[in-house]
């Protein structure tokens, strides 16, 4: 790393506060503070989230701007230091007392013009110092950029795998819901309930262990990438005269191998559906026929039941797809009701209840009392999500989904009809107003 002992006052403005060396590919934040890009990226990696300025602690949402002007100044200063080194008497050619302005790529040494023409170096590839520096730096930056893009992708996988706590909490909540559902069965099914809970805990513990192993594997792979990246960064900070004579072939080889490795993408935790005896039979005693109205056809990107694009940015959306949105003609404020929706012909769908649906232009506008279960395609798999609680680790239903509305209890439950199993249930007291059935879907 180049020394920060800068005598020229102008050069003091070219020092990175993180590495205390001269800037390497400088960037600046909205707060105005400037850093080496590599230093800032690794600083973010160390602190994880949220990202903040190392100087003033102001959050910056991982956004920064390349400082082209400062980059040019840095280049001038680094070349100036190189020339000072080459012009010094102690670094001139011992044999010819001339400046070493030629770089021999074969021998990885600096030569004067007379030495470059000698028999010893005939047949070697030579170039000027300026060209050699530019090519070496470009190659270093190319490797760093390639590795960092891989690291950012890998970080997404790491964040996905770091959900062991969420998984554990989700299973605890599900256990309470299962107990509540069995408590409403008549006659009581204590033995079946205990077996169900035992099965749930076994699946939960098995999946939790798999999540931990998957996370450890991904973190290990990421650490290997980070190690190579740090080596590249350290090398890029060296003075030009030191950088040129380094043999970087092995480092570049390891960088290429690291960038080409297949990255482990982690597991997708899913709970298998578990049948609850008598569940659908009990719910059918509250069954009602729902008549829908206001069916509207438009592209999916026009429909935002609860701004799903903001919650799940990687969700696959296609504005050309046909989307149907329907509301029940009748609203419910008292009693218990159950209805079923056939979803086997739809790729993505939303079922649940809403308060007073209305449109803003061609978009559906949701309210805090809208309670949905939504099936979306995310990356290469399907997920089930709700307005509160985010993603749910439940097996996707492939046929009819039952919706149970308890107005007195203030909650909605969703059932996989074919398997007579509970998908999920909102907590009691979630709403206290009249609501009506809601349904939307994307046609296959």
UniProtKB/TrEMBL annotation:
Q: What CDD domains does this protein map onto?
A: RING-HC_MmTRIM43-like
Q: Which UniProt keywords apply?
A: Metal-binding, Zinc, Zinc-finger
- What range(s) does the RING-type domain occupy? 16-56
Ranges for domain B30.2/SPRY: 270-444
What are the B box-type domain coordinates in residue numbering?
88-129
Keyword field contains Zinc: yes
Q: Molecular function terms in GO for this entry?
A: zinc ion binding
Q: Which Pfam families match?
A: SPRY (PF00622), zf-C3HC4 (PF00097)
Q: What InterPro entries does this protein map onto?
A: B30.2/SPRY, B30.2/SPRY_sf, Butyrophylin_SPRY, ConA-like_dom_sf, SPRY_dom, TRIM/RBCC, Znf_B-box, Znf_C3HC4_RING-type
Q: Which family does it belong to?
A: Belongs to the TRIM/RBCC family.
Entry protein name:
Tripartite motif-containing 43B
Q: Provide the species name.
A: Mus musculus (Mouse)
What is the gene name?
Trim43b
């Amino acid at each position: 790393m180049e020394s920060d002992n800068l005598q020229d006052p102008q050069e003091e403005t070219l020092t990175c506060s993180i590495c205390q060396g001269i800037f390497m590919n400088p960037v600046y934040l909205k707060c105005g503070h400037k850093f080496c890009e590599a230093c800032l990226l690794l600083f973010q990696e160390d602190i994880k989230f949220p990202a903040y300025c190392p100087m003033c602690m102001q959050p910056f949402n991982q956004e920064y701007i390349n400082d082209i002007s400062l980059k040019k100044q840095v280049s001038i200063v680094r070349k100036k230091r190189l020339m000072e080194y080459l012009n010094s008497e102690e670094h001139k050619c011992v044999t010819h007392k001339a400046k070493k302005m030629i770089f021999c790529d074969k021998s990885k040494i600096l030569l004067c013009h007379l030495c470059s023409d000698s028999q010893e170096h005939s047949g070697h590839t030579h170039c000027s110092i300026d060209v050699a520096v530019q090519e070496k730096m470009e190659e270093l930056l190319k490797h760093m950029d390639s590795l960092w893009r891989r690291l950012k992708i890998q970080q997404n996988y790491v964040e996905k795998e770091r959900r062991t706590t969420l998984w554990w909490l989700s299973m605890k909540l599900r256990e309470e819901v299962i107990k509540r559902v069995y408590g409403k069965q008549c006659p009581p099914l204590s033995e079946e309930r205990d077996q169900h809970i035992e099965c749930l805990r076994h699946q939960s513990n098995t999946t939790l262990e798999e999540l931990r192993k998957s996370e450890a594997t991904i973190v290990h792979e990421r650490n290997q990438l980070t190690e190579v990246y740090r080596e590249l960064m350290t090398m890029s900070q060296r003075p030009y005269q030191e950088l040129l004579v380094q043999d970087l072939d092995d480092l570049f080889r390891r960088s290429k191998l690291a960038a080409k490795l297949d990255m482990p993408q982690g597991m997708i935790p899913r709970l298998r559906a578990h049948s609850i005896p008598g569940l659908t039979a009990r719910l059918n005693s509250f069954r009602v026929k729902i008549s829908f109205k206001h069916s509207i056809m438009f592209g999916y990107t026009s429909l935002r039941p609860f701004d799903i694009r903001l919650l799940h940015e990687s969700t696959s959306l296609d504005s050309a797809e046909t989307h149907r949105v329907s509301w029940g003609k009748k609203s419910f404020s008292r009693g218990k009701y159950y209805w079923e929706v056939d979803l086997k012909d739809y790729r993505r769908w939303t079922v649940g209840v809403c308060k007073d649906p209305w449109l803003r232009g061609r978009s559906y506008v949701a309210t805090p009392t809208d309670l949905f279960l939504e099936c979306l395609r995310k990356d290469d798999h399907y997920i089930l999500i709700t307005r509160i609680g985010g993603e749910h680790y439940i097996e996707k239903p492939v046929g009819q989904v039952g919706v149970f509305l308890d107005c007195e209890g203030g909650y909605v439950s969703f059932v996989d009809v074919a398997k007579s199993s509970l998908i999920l249930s909102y907590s009691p007291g979630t709403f206290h107003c009249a609501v009506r059935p809601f349904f939307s879907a994307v046609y296959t």
